[in-house]
Amino acid sequence: MPGESVRPLFPFFSEGPGGSYLDSAATTQKPKVVLDELLRVLVHHNANVHRGAYRLSAEASELYDQARMKVAKMIGAPSERSIVFVRGATEAINLVAYGSEQLFNPGDTILLTLLEHHSNIVPWQLLAKRRGLKIAFADITDDGRLDMDDFREKLTSLKPKLVAVTQLANSLGTVTPIAEIVSLAQQAGAQVLVDGAQGVTHLGVDVQALGCDYYVFSGHKMYGPTGIGVLYGRPERLEALQPFQGGGDMISYVSVEGSGWAEVPQRFEAGTPAFPEAIALGAAVDFLSRFERSEIILHESSLVAEACELLRGEQGVVLHGPASRGEKQLAVVSFSIDSVHPHDFATIADTHNIQVRAGNHCAMPTLRRLGVQATVRLSFGLYSCRQDLVAVREAIREARQLFGR
Ligand SMILES: Cc1ncc(COP(=O)(O)O)c(C=O)c1O
Asked: Would 77 disulfide with which of 72, 123, 321, 364, CB 3.0-4.6 Å?
């Protein structure tokens, strides 16, 4: 069961700083099995993949390919050929934004939402600049839920060519009705990219059942290493994308006159890939599969409910996000404290070995829409537990006293 009992699986708590780490939306701590796998590959299988004719390279290549299969299975992809290894969610979105440039005509619209992380906004803005496109944002409600009436209206009136939406907002913990969004957008003729950077860890996904065109996520937010992430694309979508970067490993031939591309997904993996990290991501996939998806969701939604209950009882605390009005919210709790700036609170909390995030959480449009510049954010992982929340409550009391309330 997730909670305190899984802490022994994470050396962070026994050999590292431990404490109340409440910034898992930024990056998760790593279980020992993932750390061990990373070291094992570097010690025992360290040779460049898809190159050497010698055994060591063949072994590394085999492990790299197995990791791709594990990822494909985890997200319900039809085949490992739909899985492109990238550096993270940000690179995956940039890859699609660059690779699909030729599919857009000046004047076309891309529809986003006001819940998006900057990495699901800025690559589209860059694309819009290059190709003369328009960007529109579906509105959110005052408690941070996606305004589906506005989304439907914009789909109908703007006829976007592409819709890019988060499955779970990192700023507020909002769960979007992603199946409905994908279905409505595709009925309206749009391709859909789902930002699963949070969703893959906290909700899980079956990309074929969902039917999205693209799904992106980062390894380091799902108990895997940094520097590795995934772009899933439907086979016909990946075939239609232009390569984003050129170099070794992504070609079928190179001549002085020009070059031909390798098959998908190698076409999008120029240069030496982060193969030890990819293989360790495979270990993270195995690790996550030890838990029932329903257990993870129950654990992380219960923590949201407990946090909201504790914080509601505290003077001067204002909750932001759907749970503030009793609506569904997962893995994240965002709040403000009167008279205490979020950064000051984060500094005070840190003196008690509590790590919380303070700021705009790379979601400036979301916070602006809610009329705040910064919030304190608690974000949970498998190892988070009630004692972390109690520690936060004590730190709030101390901060309010220090700031004269
Ligand atoms: C919802 C969401 N999308 C995208 C990203 C970007 O992920 P990365 O920085 O790993 O590329 C994040 C990171 O916080 C996120 O929470």
From this structure: 72
